[in-house]
Amino acid sequence: AQSVTQLDSHVSVSEGTPVLLRCNYSSSYSPSLFWYVQHPNKGLQLLLKYTSAATLVKGINGFEAEFKKSETSFHLTKPSAHMSDAAEYFCVVSDDRQFYFGTGTSLTVIP
Amino acid sequence: DSGVTQTPKHLITATGQRVTLRCSPRSGDLSVYWYQQSLDQGLQFLIHYYNGEERAKGNILERFSAQQFPDLHSELNLSSLELGDSALYFCASSVVGGGIYEQYFGPGTRLTVT
Fold first, then answer.
1. How far is Cα A41 from Cα B11, in angstroms, rounded to an integer?
2. B105 and A44 in contact by Cβ < 8 A?
3. How crowded is the C-beta side of B51, counted as CA atoms within 13 Å?
4. Cα–Cα distance, B22 to B74 (Å, whole number)
5. Which segments in chain A show pLDDT lower than 70?
6. Which of these, A65, A77, B83, B99, is most buried using a 10 Å CB contact count?
7. Contact at CB, B100 and A49, closer than 8 angstroms
8. Between chains, do A98 and B100 touch, taking CB under 8 Å as contact?
């Protein structure tokens, strides 16, 4: 069975400092992993995805994530937070029928 | 713009009523997914259709039903509505069912049950 655990429900950073949003996954085979972002009252937007190619995946808006099989992790990072990054972030693993969402991490960016 | 459209954007109705939410997937996408998002329950997967066939079921209540039509649009029917059904309902589409293919989300329908 597939599942993801987002280790922090809330993360707060100052503008211009690095962002780290943590995600651990559980998968019975080689997983496909995604990060989505949801701004208030908006739909979810794909940030990046991992599909067994390069372990370091670059996404939109300066975000990237590293797949670490030994740690079953897929943490999302950004070198320098911007005010517009304030949103809810979801880590997702998929099989051939369904997408399994984490409970989300709310990112606050302090000016 | 993801290419996924949902109508209506907002819906206000009374308890006990029935509503239909509509979703049109991106051109070429065969899979449609429905999700419910509320403050207390977070994002909940409801159901997945692939090319007209039900593919997977999540936490969908018996009062709720869905279908995908030959033109691939989908409808989610919610009946005997309760206050607790108030939520954002999202539709998403993908090329096929899961795997390496990402989902694209619509803007959602906000349902308010009074």
1. 15
2. yes
3. 5
4. 6
5. none
6. A65
7. yes
8. no
